[in-house]
Amino acid sequence: MDSSFRTPEQDREFMKAWEALKQQADNTVSDRILDYFSSEPGRLGDMTASCGDLTLDYSRSAMSLKVRDELLALLKHSGLDAARKAMFGGELLNNTEQRAVLHAALRGSARPTASGLGDIIGEVDAALDSMTRVVQRLHSGSWTGFDGQPITDVVSIGIGGSFLGPEVVVEALRPDWHDGIRVHFVANVDAADILNTLEGLKASNTLFIIQSKSFTTQETLTNALTARAWFLGDASVGALDDSAEALGKHFIAVSSNVEKAQAFGIDPENILPMWDWVGGRYSLWSAIGLPIACQIGMPLFRKLLQGAAAMDEHFLTAPLEENLPALLAMIGIWYNNFKNIGNYAIIPYDQGLNDLAAHLQQVDMESNGKSVQRDGKPVFSQTGTIVWGGAGTNGQHAYHQLIHQGTRVVPVDFILPLRSRQTGRPLSERIGIEQIQKHHRMLISNCLAQSQAMLTGKSLEQARQECLNAGMNESEAEQLAPHKVIQGNKPSTTITVPEVDAFTVGQLIAMYEQRIFVQGVVWNLNSFDQWGVELGKQMCSSILPLLEGGTDASELALDPSTAQLVQAALEAN
Ligand code: F6P
Description:
Blueprint: H1 8-27, H2 33-39, H3 43-46, E1 48-51, E2 54-57, H4 65-76, H5 80-89, H6 103-106, H7 120-140, E3 153-157, H8 164-172, E4 182-186, H9 191-198, E5 206-211, H10 218-232, H11 235-238, H12 243-250, E6 251-255, H13 258-264, E7 271-273, H14 290-296, H15 298-317, H16 324-338, E8 343-348, H17 356-368, E9 386-389, H18 400-405, E10 412-417, H19 427-431, H20 433-456, H21 460-469, H22 474-484, E11 492-497, H23 502-523, H24 534-547, H25 560-572
Parallel strand pairs: 3-4, 3-5, 5-6, 6-7, 8-9, 8-10, 10-11
Antiparallel strand pairs: 1-2, 2-11
Helix pairs in contact: 1-4, 4-16, 8-14, 8-17, 14-15, 15-23, 16-23, 17-23, 21-22
The structure holds 6-O-phosphono-beta-D-fructofuranose.
Pfam families: PGI (PF00342)
GO molecular function: isomerase activity
Organism: Allohahella marinimesophila
């Protein structure tokens, strides 16, 4: 198994830089972020960087400019150049599965030169053409179902990377939705998920896209079988002579396992490709993005790809001091490895991006939640960070309390669209554009207030004075004031985009993908396998037969707690 991207010489320098940063962490324990603004007059400009119109202001990070420079020096010795070349050149970066990692080729920014890959660019173009054909037929109403009615509802069935990315993009781009089509997502094996979706649908107007790279994922196949039973259970379908032909008009697939998809009953003409060189969590840019294209059309899907390509280009060419993915990665390394802060929150002030954190949770935690290095040796530091978050302002009335007054530090990435696109929605005329704009001004001011409160906080004296001003006497003020103190000095970054459109969403997601890649290089991980999810899948396939009555529990060496729970489930059913 190949080891690090660092040469032995780089590795020595890397470890030296790592030790120096440890020292910096000790030296700066009592620093206050606010003080950096006075001691470092150029800080705001030096800690603002952009890729086109997307801007990152990380001046409120808990680090001096000196620490920033030392982090970038560490990165220079990390082997990033070699790793970037390997990835974009199509080398087998995923060394435990012997696979290239070429999601960047899907957006046209990788031109792989490694041998044995075949005509990747040609295959990507052909897949885009197939997507275009599907979308054109849907949008023109010429994709008709078994009884000649046009398709109005598309149900995407898939989980993990075959769900999260497409879902967040579809939700983010609601102002761009094509009128005649509504895309739905089903992921969970809990029957509630698919039943909730099917309840509002009619077989004659519904198209299912079975999204599974492997076509072996239990949840997806179970939901696909349920969808098929629902479809075939429709009285009009049941009355047909050839229900298999009808099925062919209502089920398509995106998969690299053509054989299994065909065995399910999908017309080979309607199986769009996926490839080994695209990881599931990086696949929204491939035909796995078909639900996105169905909802917003191919021109905007291509804009999404262009946004991601612009970020790739920036990632490849911008100096590290201005390189957004590199900067975000190193800010995260500083917190995770030197400040002992193991989490970060992604809080977009945009309802459509509510699920961005859920998508990036998979991308980050499935990629970098690892305990061995590329060569199988134990890691030398903490790795993957816990990612969480959700849309502002909702979180302000939920978890922001802990961010402001809790004992843990939660670095936050605030994502702020400067303009709202909601004014373009049909209802805005009836409600009045000014009223819609008012919503957005509130959204912006809330976002700015949160990051400001995290930075400045409220001192005991300010809290005491506030109590007195509210009419309390001295003793009441003394008692209440400590509860109102906000420590402040809590780090955040703010990422602004002009508005949430296909291009900026592409930029944003690619920026985080590359951030995660950079961190994987620093930690010397294979960020592109996910063996950790396998054990649960294996154990599930032994437990399931127990619940189905096919196996005797005593045949399995279950731990006592699992055995008790299996018994409880059997008794309840
Ligand atoms: O959870 C493991 C995983 O393999 C993810 O990496 C992947 O995105 C998901 O399952 C779905 O896989 P598939 O597309 O093969 O159904």
